[in-house]
Amino acid sequence: MAKTAPIRGLLYFQFQASRGNALPAAFIAIAAAVVSVITGNLFIFNMSLLIAMASLPLLLVTTMASKNGLWERYQLSMPIKRGDLLAAQYITIAICALFGWVLATIVFAANVVLHPEAFGDNLFAALTSSAHAFSTPLWFAGLCFPLASSKIGKGRDELISSMCLLFAVGINVIVPMLSERLDFAPYILPLSAFGISAVVFIISYFITRNLYHKMDF
Amino acid sequence: MGAILEVQGLHKKYENSAFGLRDVSFNLPAGAIMGFVGENGAGKSTTIGCILNTLVKDGGMVKIFGKEMGDGATNIRDDLGVVYDSNAFPDHLTPDKIASAMRHMYSKWDDTLFQNYLQKFKLPEKQKVKSFSRGMGMKLGVAAALARRPKLLILDEATSGLDPIVRDDILDVFLDFVQDENNSILLSSHITSDLEKVADYITFIHDGQIIFSESKDVLIYKYGIMRCTAAQFAEIDKADMLAYRKHDYQTDVLVIDRQAMEQKYRGIATDNVTIEEIMLMMVRGRSNG
User: Fold this and answer.
1) Cβ of B101 and A16 within 8 Å?
2) What is the count of structural domains for chain B?
3) Domain that holds residue B159
4) B48 and B81 Cβ atoms separated by less than 8 Å
């Protein structure tokens, strides 16, 4: 009898199933990265990355939750536990976040090397912006998963995911603005938001896992 | 013959709905196909959801292979094949990608068997399932369910909406599957002709309650319908009636023991009964109670 690796199987399913929808978002982020490195313009990249990072988990979630949840129901008939299914979803989101963070870090590093006149003295602040790329999927999933799994979220999947998407993007736009207004060092609030998003994401997993055990699929 | 699936006293309620399962109980023996029938909304999918633990039951017990089914029962699910009423796989998957993932999920996943079924059902290996017709999607579901070498197949309206030729192909595959006397099938359907062809047992659910769970042969050869005039109907002992249905010029009476009734009421024509007629009489007719 072959040894099984259900989480690996679930991740493979998740990646293959959402590839068609998620690849364009990843492509936009990579194309914007290339343009940014060539031109030394970070604004276009920041905005594109933010949108891509917010879209990726949304696309993953909507792809997997299609057909009135029949796919989720089907997965639960496989030799997995409810917690495994949820863990695979959280791992996928964490991979999205890492992808954004690595991409942003590479772009900023390349910009510092290629355009030192523009970025040489602002490296740390630039790197904090890459924290946004990491935190956007975490904010989205950290809020969306428990809300969508709760009684409030029943039948309101699209509304909740849209609201969480707005929040995830909004917080990364508002925080830098607040930094300027409150006269904080530019990296304090973004780094705090990054840390809080990671904590919210982890707590959200445990809350959603608890909800999953009582949920009808 | 031991029961491969035991459902005892299953209860399930939904919020803001009067519908629910009430004390659903039946047993599926090894080596048998059980037809699970009932009209739309009778509770077939809810029962299957509770059996598979995709729905959280409010009470009762489900045992599969003698072990209680729950979230942690991954060993039981390793021996289960499930097919739903439409293609459950996400649109961007292809049959070969499904096989790649299933290899990690099932200890007995058989790639060769899966390939054989793809060829048998004429399914393209590298085509996305979103371009599959309904029939192709169902065949893919059946292939994926059988390639994990299950001992119990659970099919939730899996043959509904298919043309008779595809249905016939799939029913033949099911009959092959139960040639192994350790294998069983729970086949939920409202297409009673399919069940008459393949089922060994029929369990009938109506309004969340099991009306009967009986051998198909007993239903078809023992049950009967008496065709009565108004005067004949008035003579029939109410205790002999399971249900009756009045028409313009005739009253049909469903009885459990056709031969005994023929002896007892000699002037009344008594016919064999189909599963569909039994269903209609039990749902639309009036009971003697």
Assistant:
1) yes
2) 2
3) 3-215
4) no
| A156 part of contact set with chain B, CB < 8 Å | no
Q: Which helix (H) or strand (E) holds A46?
A: helix A42-64
Q: What is the DSSP letter of A4?
A: P
Whole-number pLDDT of residue A111: 77
Using 50 as the pLDDT threshold, list the residues of chain B that sit under it: none
Local confidence band at A58 (pLDDT 50, 70, 90 cut-offs): low
Side chain identity, residue B73: A
DSSP state at residue B70: -
pTM of the predicted protein model? 0.86
State which of B215, B240, B257 marks the end of a domain: B215
ipTM of the complex: 0.88
Of B219 and A49, which is predicted with more confidence?
A: B219
Domain match, B196 and B230 both:
no
CB A44 within 8 A of CB A32: yes
pLDDT tens-digit series, residues B120-135: 999 999 999 989 988 8
Q: Does B127 share its domain with B243? A: no
Contact B34, B174 (CB under 8 A): no
Residues B208 and B179 in one domain: yes
And the tokens for B228? 């009565």
Q: Are residues B69 and B181 in the same domain?
A: yes
Tell me which residue in B53, B56, B89 faces A214 most closely, judged by beta carbons. Answer: B56
The DSSP H or E segment spanning B200 is: none
Q: Do A78 and B106 touch (CB under 8 A)?
A: yes
Decide which of A125 and B168 is more confident.
B168
Query: How close A75 gets to chain B, by Cα (Å)?
Result: 9
User: Which of residues B167, B190, B215 is at a domain's end?
Assistant: B215
Say yes or no: B277 and B155 in one domain: no
What is the domain-level CATH number for residue B98? 3.40.50.300
* Buried/exposed A17-36: b ≥16 CB within 10 Å, e otherwise: bbbbbbeebbeebbebbeeb
Q: What angle do CA B67, B73, B75 make, to 5 degrees?
A: 85
Same domain, B198 and B259: no
In this model, does residue A78 exceed pLDDT 70? yes
Residue A160 is predicted with a pLDDT of: 83
| Span B171-190, pLDDT tens digits | 999 999 999 999 999 999 88
In sequence order, which ranges of chain B are alpha helices (DSSP H)? Answer: 44-52, 74-77, 95-105, 111-120, 134-146, 164-177, 192-198, 216-217, 230-235, 258-264, 275-284
For residue A77, give the nearest of B52, B56, B75 by CB distance: B52
Do B169 and B30 fall within a single domain? yes
